[in-house]
Amino acid sequence: MKKFFSAILIFCVAVAFMACTDKTNKPNNEAPQDGTQQITVMYIYINDNKLEVTLAKNKAVTALVEILQQGDITYTANDYGGFEKVGSLGHSLPTENTQITTEAGDVILYYGNQIVLFYGSNSWSYTRLGKINGYSAAELRTLLGAGSGSVQVRISLT
């Protein structure tokens, strides 16, 4: 009888432990157990700086991730309007445009084939791709060389 109660006690402790374990605390780009790929971040490289971007959840991001799984994208971004750097993605992505007031750090899809990196603010109808983490507006202005011409950008999943 003692063995029976011991076995039940061990079983209850094991069940309680599993119930308290956070199963959602996975690295950002780890595949879930169902085999689908769940990518929540990408990286933008400018000069020697690696910027982490938290991705939005929409069809454009899904299509972008599929392209990035084949390899990095490199493009030239140019100043526009005194608040952004914009460059051709080299691919067309589906759009889900909504009226947005952007802020520094927003990564936006424009016309389905251009990526915009904001260091200022603008209101327009865009498709949001993500948000650069951990940089102030002033830091992004400096990093992106605001007002000083073009910058090489590389987008990657790693």
Can you offer a commentary on this structure?
There is one protein chain. With 158 residues, this protein is an alpha+beta fold. It has a single domain (39-156), classed as Cyclophilin (Beta Barrel). The chain has three helices and nine strands. It has helices spanning 2-20, 59-68, 137-144; strands at residues 41-46, 49-55, 73-80, 84-88, 98-101, 106-110, 114-118, 123-132, 151-156. It has an eight-stranded antiparallel β-barrel with strand order 1-2-8-6-7-4-3-9. A hairpin with a 2-residue loop joins strand 1 (41-46) and strand 2.
Largest sheet: 8 strands, antiparallel, barrel
* Named CATH topology: Cyclophilin
Provide the residue-averaged pLDDT: 84
Measured by DSSP, the beta-strand proportion falls in: 35-45%
Q: Gist?
A:
The chain is α+β, with helices and mostly antiparallel strands and 158 residues long. The chain has helices at 2-20, 59-68, 137-144, and strands spanning 41-46, 49-55, 73-80, 84-88, 98-101, 106-110, 114-118, 123-132, 151-156.
